[in-house]
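Please annotate the following for my students:
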Amino acid sequence: MELERLIGMLKDRTPVILGSDQFIKYSILLPLIHHDGEIRVLFEVRAHTLRRQPGEICFPGGKIDQEDRDEQHSAIRETSEELGISESTIANVFPLDYMVSAFGTIIYPYVGVIEDYQAIKPNPAEVAEIFTVPLSFFKRTNPEKYKINFQIQPEENFPFDSIQGGEKYNWQTRQLEEYFYRYEGKVIWGLTARVLSHFLEIISEK
């Protein structure tokens, strides 16, 4: 391969996250509403008939479809479908930092305002119930934090004789910090709590 041709293949290339073509991509929306004179955060309780994470508390969202214009449209579409509202009632949608997980997923979170709270009619196939929490509660409440330790477990025929140190190789292990918020018997944790905490950090900085 000629050097000029090789350079030509590289110079206009836009870098992405290595291996991201193998990742499953999701978009979610942190919904804000103005109700009873205050800003509140809306949460869903996942339907108990769902295969993944039934009964857990989450934000609206789901897998990005090929038909979606972009990640933001995916978050709006999923919110519209799950809450039974028109896409036009979801306004002021802005991106938060996206997340690359250790489990082969990329999550694109957004924050937006649902303008007609009374129009919400949750889809029972996906949503068991909804509830709201005053934003002021989260602004004055620090989350509980607990660590999860990941363990390295090479498969049985791993070629230890091909690496320095063999079976005593000093693997780099890592921890994942899980956040928990508790409000009137509801436990908000995991990805939902992490996105919520990130949002709170942003508005605290401002």
The chain has one domain: 21-156+169-205. Helices lie at 3-11, 71-83, 135-139, 190-205.
